[in-house]
Each structure stands twice: as structure tokens, then as C-alpha cells.
Design goal:
The protein has 866 residues and is an alpha+beta fold. It folds into six domains: 36-133, Alpha-Beta Plaits (2-Layer Sandwich), CATH 3.30.70.1430; 181-264 and 701-786, Multidrug efflux transporter AcrB TolC docking domain, DN and DC subdomains, CATH 3.30.2090; 326-490 and 839-860, Multidrug efflux transporter AcrB transmembrane fold (Up-down Bundle), CATH 1.20.1640; 498-539; 553-653, Alpha-Beta Plaits; 660-697 and 787-828, Multidrug efflux transporter AcrB pore domain (Alpha-Beta Plaits, 2-Layer Sandwich), CATH 3.30.70.1440. 47% of the residues lie in helices and 22% in strands. The strands form seven sheets. Strands 1, 2, 3, 4, 20, 21, 28, 29 and 30 form a nine-stranded antiparallel β-sheet that branches. A hairpin with a 2-residue loop joins strand 8 (217-220) and strand 9. It starts with a helix and ends in a 12-residue tail after the last helix.
């Protein structure tokens, strides 16, 4: 083949040039991203159920969902966590599962389960986790002082979101911090009592005034018209003008019985930026989009927003393109300087200038053709694939040196230039193919690793395979052709192929070689001694998921562990930001419940995340220490965690799963073990060094116990009492005003009083209209309950987390402790997944060794050392 190609240098050269041009065209179409598009085999089902306890969410919502998901194909694990007003079910699938089909199957099962779920529950949200779910940038939308926040929320939802979604390459725009406008109806209780009316009369009047005909039509001659009630409510003034009929037949305008006004809905969460309340818009890119082309469009759009809406302040934060540019720039620099350094080294060790120039021409050509392989393999340009190119660059140079050196040796032996090129390539062809295959035997099996690591190694394995395959093509076709053209017109006199530097190093190597082999026993003994010493140093190395990166921003995660509302949570966060004012450069906070569609983490009103950006690492450490001490002094019950703010890599590799975890289930009740029993049991736990899992964390609660006998005695029923409690303490929705896709709720609102005064000042009315205070039928007590109810596919469990794995003796004692309490104990956590990964890596090493043996040749002994 080499003889045939060398006989047609012009045709081969033109073909190779065309291949280079074609590869350059394909290179410009490759998507650029920070990370490869990885379908994480997890789906999260999110549930929002206001004014509902964790026990109720687990029993009525999450348990039916878990039972309905058991039959999903490829389902490996299933866990759920129910908290106050929220719940989630996390489904983990096998990595061979097609997540597009799994996502469709989960949604279909949710639709089938709708009838078995509570009627007042919104449809559970199904979130599919993907690397593209990590936002590329966050747009801060902060209204100026005096601007209506509800109007800014509508502007963000209807204008800013839609304009950003129209940008090329943008897949989704998500929003947090919205506050919707509602119409509040506050009853005037003295007036109602004086007229003998109740709040139920107001509710019936509003519902009747907002009724709608369900698709009735009439015919008028040859025409048919749909009926519409002209009395439908549209404004607060329409509500004020509604007539309310009392039990005695008297009719009064509603505006005289209650205050009707527009207001903001009761908040369950806030977004804060630089101490000001606002909204945040996260931008997510499409899989095939180039991030470096999207970001200028986003910046241009935000600049237009500033001009069009001067009453709103805009800012861009957490721009992931900076991390992308830094990562790709570093890899490009490594490729460039690595190639230049290798190119310069060739001049040092080779005796002529033509051979290094030939290799220097082949390096960029091989890289460019390698990008064509990226295109057909569906690989994007990201930090993982570029790292594979950097790894394969050294092997590419090795192949080129071997081919050219062998051709030079053949020419020095007296063969004609043409025959030297042919013979030199043919002689090393099998050796180079074997060496490339043994190298691929190391990288390609890494694709079969489980977890995120295996998915990431796919891009790296393909890039290494691409550059090595192209290196063989260049070594067998282009290099002999270039050598033939470069040396064709050179005189036949022998030229020095090795430099003086190489000859000096070779002489030194021979001396060391003779010295070692003159004392073979001592040399072997020293070698065998060094092996355990080097292995022992492994224990001294730190183990981390990612290499340390200097960061100047911190994430403060706070769980107040108190039954506070979102407004109190916001005030505490603002006080913390004021106390640290002047220390940080930028502050951003997510308070309470998150409204993001793609948010798969925990949600609770009493939780908050505070992002702080500092000028340098010293300020960050000092502020973190000071903030932690201040929190411990002011709020000893609060759980505070301060760590580096996560970037895209941290969000992908982070896991909420404990390192080592003990789970148990109550075999008798199939329910969480009550706190009054569990606390003494934990005090006698056989080992120390554990932390309570979510299913054991407790919070304060108020318990209402109704006197059923007293209700029956006064002619009242339970549903009447429950409805009254919902009106007083819940967000009681009377009806909705729907107009052109905009929905405005009409809410019944009471004075912001403590619950004991509300029970005293509100009444139930008996059969003869006699009022009875609610406190007559409700006994109030304070109690501690579990904040979360955790469960897996086999039922409810509680857990303890450990920082290190337990020994076999400790495991035996723990199992004895569980057996005495009639508990089933099981161990899990990230520790066991890491062990599985290590076992897979050991298997890959053996696979590589077997591949080396299968390609064993005397000339390849150095490649096949295990």
C-alpha cells in the first residue's frame, strides 16, 4: 500500500489537503460546551402540597407514587423524602436505560395516578437530570424602589423569559422569586355579626358571581352562538358590587362587609441580590449549541433590557462561560505549548532540521482531522474531549518519530530513498498498530465504568481513539510522503541523524546500564524494596473527587430548625448580609421554597442558601469563620454549612448520599419509630461518631385536637370545623379570575393574629345560629415531630450517617442492637459505590493485561508490562 501511495504523490497530497479542508469545515460546526451532554440516569418527581404535614404527604402522595413506579424498566433504586408542604421521589436507573423513554414512562404513570392522589394537589412535576440542566448564566432582575413587584414578575414571565428563549441555542429559561398578584377579601367581623351574616355568605356570593357556563350554545336562525355570562368578575370593583344575602333575607353590597383590594400572594420564598428583593432568571443551553456563541447574545439581550426597562436593574452572575473559557484555554495552551515543546525537543535530539519540520507539519494536521472524527462520533468540544486529545498528543509524536527514524535507518543502510520509505513503514506497521491497540485497551474499557465517571470517560476514550487512529493514518501515509519529498533532491551522502546531545545521553545511559547489570542481585533487591515503599505512599495522598481549585466565592447553607415563615427567614438573611456588608463583593440568596422547574434539591421554608463572592481567598476564610461563630452564638439551633460555591463540575459530581449510612426499618409497624422510643435507643447505640439522618431530625409543631363529642352535642360536624380552620390558617382560595391566560386568585384573608387569639375571636354557628368560639372544640398542645419522612422502594426507613466505614466488629454489634429492637438494619452509602468503581478499575487493568498478551511480540515488551 505504501509503495502504491508513494508512486502517486500529487494525488495523495491533494486528497490529504481536501481532507484537512473538510475537517476544518466540520470543526466550525462542533458544539462547544463546558461538559459533555450526559444523561444522568436519575429522574426526580417534585410535589408541592401547601399546608400539609410530612406524614400526610408520605401517606397520601409519595407512597402511591412509589408503588406506581416500581414496575419501571431499568429502575435500580428509589428514594423519597417528605417534608412540610413538599416532597420528592428520586428514581435511579441503570446506565444502559434510555432516559428519553424513561422520562415518558414516568410521566405516563403520573397521569394514571392522578385519580388516586388528593384532588387539591397540583400535578407532580417530573424533572429529568442532565448536564444541560446546569445553567450557563443567571440574570438578576431587581425592581427599583417604588416599582410594583407583581408587574415586574409579569414582565419577567411574559417578556424577558420569552425573549431569552428566542435566542439561538437557548433551550430553557427558568425563574425563581416570582410574586403573583391576588385579590384579598378581608371580612369585617363586627359588621357581619351585626347583620347576622357569616363568612360563608361572602364566599357563596363571590362563587356565584364568578360562575361560568360550561360550553352552552344557542341558535339564532342559521347562526349558532356560545353563551357567556356577563356577570363574570374581572376587577376588585366587580367584587365590591356583589350583593350578599343574609339568613334573614336582607341583601347588602359586599364592599360594606369586607375590604377588597389587590395584594401580593402570601410568599413562600424570596430571591435576594445585593440585599434587594428581586427575581433570578437562569438560562440553559441546547445540547448542540456553542456556549461561546450564546453568551454574547445573552449579554446583548440584557443590554437591550436595560434600555427598554429603566425602572428595573439587571445584572449577570455565575457565568459558566468563564469556567469554560478558562478550562478550554488551559487545554489549548497545553496542546500548543506541548506541541511546540515537543517540536523544539526534536531539534535537540535530531541531527537534521528536515525531520522535526515533517513532524511539526503532521501534528496540527492530525489534530484537525481528529475533529472530523468528533463530528461523526457526536462528540462536542469540551474539557473532557480536549483532555483526551492532550493525552493522545504524546503518542502521536511517538509514532511519527518511530516511522521517520526507521526510514532514516533504512536509508543509512544503503537502500534507495523510495525503497527506504516503503521498507521503513512496512517494518514498523504491525508494531505501531499493536502499540495503539494496547493503549486503547486502557482507555476504551473505562467507558463501561458505572456512574458519572463512565459517562465522562466516553468522550475521553473517543478523543484518544480518534487522535491515535489519525496518528496511524498520518504515520503510514503522510510521513513517508513528506520524507520522500523533503529528501528527494538531497545528495546521497550520509547525514548525521543523531545530535551530539543525544549521543551524550546515550553514552550516559550505557554506563548506567552496565553498572546495574554488573550487580544484578543488588539491583533486583533495590527494585523489589522500592515497590512496597511506593505503594505505601498511596496512603499519604489525599482523596478528592475533583482537584482543588482556588475559589473566591462561598455558599452558606442554613436550616434554621425553627418553624419560621418566609418573611422571617428573609429578615434574618438580610441581617446577616448587613453585618458582613463591605466585606464581600457580591451577595445572592435563595430564601425558602424555590420556584425553579429544574430544582431537584430539598425545599423548605425555613432553609436558605447565601452565595458570597470575595476579593481573595483570605477574606473568604475570615468571613466564613466569623459568620459561623456569629450564627452559633445567635441561633444555636440552626444547622449551618459553609463551603465553596459549586460550579458546573461540583453540581455534576456532588451527591447528597452519605459516605457511609446505616438504615433501619420497623418490621412491626412499617412506620417511623416514634421519638419517645428512638431517643433512648440512640442513647444506647453501640458506637459513636454518627450524625442523625433526615428521618431523625426533629422540629417543633402545634397540634390541634378536636373534641368530637362536644361538636356533636352542639349540633356541629367535623367538616364544618375543618373548613373554618382552613379559612383561618390556610391560603383559602375562594375562586379564580381567568382572563386571557392570566389567572388572579381571590383569597379569603384574616388579620395577622396569633393562633390562640384567632381561636378565641372566631366562631362556629349551631343549628339556631348560636355562635360558639373555636377554642371550645380545640385543645392546643406543642409537640416535636420528625421534619422529614424518608422511604425507599421497600418502605419507610430512618438512618444514621458516618464519616468513615465501620469495622466488622462494629457492624456485628450494630446488627445485634437492631435485632433487639426488632429492626431490620442495612448499610449503604457512597463508600460502597466507590468500592464498586475500584473493582471495575481492577477488572479493566486485567483486561488491558490480557490485551497486551494477545498482541505480544518481542518488539512490544515495553508496551505490555502490566
Amino acid at each position: 500500500m505504501v509503495r502504491f501511495l508513494l508512486a502517486r504523490p500529487i494525488a495523495v497530497g491533494m486528497t490529504f489537503l481536501a481532507l484537512l479542508i473538510f475537517s476544518l469545515i466540520l470543526f466550525r460546526t462542533l458544539p462547544i460546551a463546558l461538559l459533555p451532554p450526559i444523561d444522568v440516569p436519575q429522574i426526580v418527581i417534585k410535589v408541592d402540597y401547601p399546608n400539609t404535614s410530612p406524614e400526610s404527604i408520605e401517606q397520601n402522595v409519595l407512597r402511591p407514587i412509589r408503588e406506581g413506579m416500581v414496575t419501571l424498566n431499568g429502575l435500580q433504586d428509589m428514594e423519597s423524602e417528605a417534608g412540610s408542604e413538599v416532597g420528592s421521589v428520586r428514581l435511579t436507573f441503570d446506565y444502559r436505560t434510555q432516559m428519553e423513554l424513561a422520562y415518558i414512562a414516568v410521566n405516563e404513570k403520573i397521569d394514571r395516578l392522578t385519580n388516586s392522589l388528593p384532588q387539591d394537589l397540583d400535578r407532580p412535576r417530573v424533572v429529568r437530570i442532565n448536564t444541560n440542566d446546569i445553567p450557563i448564566v443567571r440574570v438578576q432582575v431587581v425592581p427599583q424602589e417604588g416599582v410594583d413587584f407583581a408587574d415586574v414578575s409579569l414582565l419577567t414571565e411574559n417578556v424577558i423569559k420569552k425573549r431569552l428563549e428566542q435566542l439561538d441555542g437557548v433551550a430553557l429559561v427558568d425563574i425563581n422569586g416570582r410574586q403573583d398578584r391576588v385579590i384579598s377579601v378581608s371580612p369585617n367581623k363586627p359588621v357581619l355579626a351585626g347583620l347576622g351574616m357569616t363568612e360563608s355568605d361572602l364566599i357563596r356570593a363571590i362563587e356565584a358571581g364568578n360562575s361560568e357556563l360550561p360550553g352552552i350554545s344557542v341558535e339564532d336562525g342559521q347562526f349558532r352562538y356560545y353563551l357567556r355570562l356577563a356577570s363574570r368578575l374581572e376587577t376588585p370593583e366587580d367584587i365590591r358590587n356583589l350583593p350578599v344575602r343574609g339568613p334573614s333575607g336582607n341583601t347588602v353590597v359586599l364592599g360594606k362587609l369586607a375590604e377588597v383590594r389587590q395584594a401580593l400572594d402570601k410568599p413562600t420564598g424570596f430571591h435576594l441580590f445585593q440585599g434587594r428583593e428581586g427575581l433570578v432568571v437562569t438560562v440553559h443551553k441546547q445540547t448542540a449549541a456553542r456556549m461561546n456563541e450564546i453568551m454574547p447574545l445573552v449579554y446583548e439581550a440584557v443590554e437591550l433590557f436595560r434600555q427598554d426597562y429603566p425602572q428595573v436593574d439587571f445584572a449577570l452572575t455565575q457565568d459558566q462561560s468563564t469556567l469554560l473559557n478558562a478550562g478550554i484555554s488551559n487545554l489549548q495552551t497545553s496542546l500548543l505549548f506541548g506541541g511546540l515543546f515537543a517540536f523544539g525537543i526534536l531539534f535537540v535530539f535530531m541531527g537534521n532540521y528536515r525531520t522535526p519540520i515533517i513532524i511539526g507539519v503532521s501534528l496540527p494536521a492530525s489534530l484537525i482531522i481528529g475533529f472530523a472524527v468528533f463530528y461523526f462520533a457526536g462528540i462536542s468540544i469540551n474539557v473532557i474531549s480536549l483532555s483526551g486529545l492532550a493525552l493522545g498528543l504524546g503518542m502521536l509524536i511517538d509514532n511519527a518519530i518511530i516511522v521517520l527514524d526507521n526510514i532514516s535507518r533504512k536509508k543509512q543502510e544503503g537502500l534507495p530513498l523510495f525503497e527506504a520509505c516503503v521498507s521503513g513503514v512496512n517494518e514498523v506497521m504491525s508494531a505501531l498498530i499493536s502499540s495503539v491497540l494496547t493503549t486503547l485497551a486502557v482507555f476504551v474499557p473505562l467507558v463501561f465504568l458505572s456512574g458519572i465517571a463512565g459517562a465522562l470517560f466516553y468522550d475521553q476514550a473517543v478523543s484518544v481513539a480518534a487522535i491515535l487512529s489519525v496518528s496511524l493514518l498520518v504515520a503510514f501515509v503522510v510521513l513517508p510522503l513528506l520524507y520522500y519529498l523533503f529528501f528527494k533532491n538531497k545528495s546521497e551522502q550520509r547525514s548525521r541523524e543523531d545530535s551530539r546531545v543525544f549521543l551524550l545521553l546515550l553514552a550516559g545511559y550505557k554506563k548506567v546500564y552496565r553498572l546495574l547489570f554488573s550487580q544484578p542481585r543488588w539491583s533486583l533487591a533495590i527494585l523489589l524494596l522500592l515497590i512496597p515503599v511506593m505503594l505505601a505512599t498511596v496512603r499519604l495522598l489525599e482523596v478528592e473527587g475533583l482537584p482543588p481549585i482556588e475559589k473566591f466565592d462561598a455558599l452558606v447553607s442554613i436550616d434554621w430548625n425553627e418553624p419560621i415563615n418566609a418573611i422571617q427567614n428573609k429578615e434574618r438573611i438580610l441581617n446577616l448580609m448587613k453585618e458582613e456588608s463591605g466585606v464581600y463583593l457580591q451577595a445572592e440568596s435563595e430564601v425558602g421554597l424555590r420556584q425553579f422547574l429544574l430544582h431537584e434539591g430539598n425545599n423548605a421554608i425555613q432553609q436558605a442558601d447565601l452565595f458570597l463572592t470575595f476579593e481573595n481567598a483570605v477574606q473568604k476564610e475570615q468571613a466564613s469563620t466569623r459568620l459561623l461563630h456569629r450564627m452559633q452564638g445567635k441561633f444555636p439551633q440552626a444547622a449551618v454549612a459553609i463551603r465553596d460555591a459549586p460550579n458546573a463540575f461540583d453540581q455534576l459530581f456532588s451527591s447528597d448520599r452519605p459516605f457511609f449510612e446505616l438504615r433501619w426499618k420497623d418490621l412491626a409497624s412499617k412506620q417511623p419509630v416514634p421519638a419517645e422510643k428512638m431517643d433512648p435507643w440512640l442513647s444506647s447505640f453501640p458506637i459513636t461518631g454518627w450524625v442523625k439522618g433526615p428521618g431523625l431530625q426533629k422540629g417543633a409543631a402545634v397540634v390541634f385536637r378536636t373534641d368530637v363529642e362536644k361538636l356533636a352535642l352542639y349540633g356541629l360536624d367535623g367538616p364544618q370545623l375543618v373548613e373554618k380552620i382552613q379559612q383561618l390558617f390556610g391560603n383559602y382560595l375562594i375562586t379564580d379570575i381567568k382572563r386571557f391566560g392570566e389567572i388572579t386568585p381571590i383569597m379569603l384573608v384574616h388579620d395577622a393574629l396569633d393562633f390562640q387569639r384567632l381561636l378565641t375571636t372566631n366562631f362556629l354557628y349551631g343549628e339556631e345560629g348560636i355562635p360558639y368560639a373555636l377554642e371550645e372544640f380545640i385543645a392546643v398542645s406543642y409537640d416535636e415531630h420528625y421534619k422529614f419522612v424518608t422511604a425507599d422502594r421497600s418502605g419507610i426507613y430512618q438512618s444514621l450517617a458516618f464519616e468513615s466505614p465501620v469495622t466488622q466488629q462494629e457492624e456485628r454489634r450494630i446488627r445485634e442492637w437492631a435485632t433487639e429492637k426488632n429492626l431490620s438494619a442495612d448499610f449503604g452509602g457512597q463508600y460502597f459505590r466507590d468500592r464498586e468503581t475500584i473493582r471495575q478499575l481492577v477488572g479493566i487493568c486485567w483486561f488491558r493485561y490480557c490485551c497486551c498478551i494477545s498482541f505480544w511480540q518481542p518488539s512490544l515488551k515495553t508496551f505490555c508490562s502490566p
